[in-house]
Specification:
Layout lengths: L1 H35 L6 H19 L1 H22 L9 H23 L15 E4 L2 E4 H22 L2 H8 L4 H23 L5 H16 L4 H21 L4 H15 L14
Antiparallel strand pairs: 1-2
Helix pairs in contact: 1-5, 1-7, 1-8, 1-9, 2-3, 2-4, 2-7, 2-8, 3-7, 5-6, 5-7, 8-9, 8-10, 9-10
């Protein structure tokens, strides 16, 4: 009985970990949508670029440099994407931005496949983060605990930047720096790719696989709501972890059942507010 309880706790923590990955991607989606009403379907492809950058830069300069540089490179790509393309869609028919970002996602995925091949790239947990925390019968990898901590710090810093600084006030007023906002949102997706690379492997279609869950999180949390996305991501992750424990065949379906239940009770999501606000 004790072993079953320990395993259940491990599944809950795994769910929180997956929820954190969903959060980093979904929060970026919500930030960009709040900026100009653009639903960025290329977000997952940029998440994949973050993972590939992590692998390549680690081979050249080591894990530490790659961990810092990879999200920054993806953020820079996000700023470039906003300056060259996305800003032209803010006042256009939303269908146009959907079509453009969908096409961009396909181009990025095929480019990754052409450059790196279709087979997954293996990327191991760095030596300093290997091993497991052991508390009685409870065992959990140090790397996963560290990634929970890193993602939590990234979340806190993003909230502070958007809510407690002069830059955040200007952004919320919608008067300047849309490229910086887009860079932050896409940089969070790059960070998610960096964190997930040693756990799931790196392959061209990895962005597609996580984007559906990220959209579910945004819908459940409410477009334009920072803390709505946070609550939704953790809720989705934990429910998926518990479903995996009690009834694995329903693991994937649990996301959509939860979304349906929330939308029936609150069509704007858990904390959905006006679309031009992030609060």
């Amino acid at each position: 009985m004790a072993n079953e309880f320990v395993f259940l706790i491990e599944q809950v923590i795994n769910g929180l970990l997956m929820g954190v990955y969903y959060l980093l991607i979904a929060l970026g989606l919500s930030i960009i949508f709040s900026l100009g009403g653009v639903v960025n379907l290329a977000h997952g492809a940029l998440f994949a670029i973050g993972a590939y950058m992590m692998v390549q830069i680690t081979d050249i300069a080591g894990y530490g440099v790659a961990f810092i540089a990879s999200p920054l490179i993806v953020a820079a790509l996000g700023m470039l994407l906003e300056r060259l393309f996305l800003r032209h869609f803010y006042k256009a028919d939303p269908v146009l931005s959907l079509l453009f970002t969908f096409g961009l996602a396909m181009i990025i995925e095929q480019a990754l496949r052409m450059v790196f091949g279709a087979s997954p790239l293996q990327f191991n947990v760095p030596n300093f983060a290997r091993g497991q925390l052991m508390l009685g019968d409870f065992m959990y990898p140090y790397y996963r605990l560290a990634m929970l901590a890193v993602a939590s710090v990234a979340l806190l810093l993003t909230w502070l930047l958007l809510n407690k600084t002069a830059f955040g006030k200007v952004v919320k007023a919608g008067v300047s720096d849309p490229d910086m906002v887009c860079g932050i949102g896409i940089g969070l997706a790059g960070l998610a790719g960096v964190l997930l690379a040693p756990i799931s492997g790196v392959h061209p279609a990895m962005g597609q696989e996580i984007m559906t869950a990220a959209f579910v999180v945004v819908v459940i949390g409410g477009l334009g709501s920072f803390w709505g996305v946070v609550v939704a991501a953790l809720l989705v992750g934990v429910i998926r972890g518990l479903t995996t424990y009690f009834y694995p065949p329903a693991s994937e379906a649990s996301l959509y059942i939860l979304m349906l239940a929330v939308l029936l009770l609150r069509p704007r999501g858990l904390m959905g507010e006006r679309m031009d606000r992030l609060e």
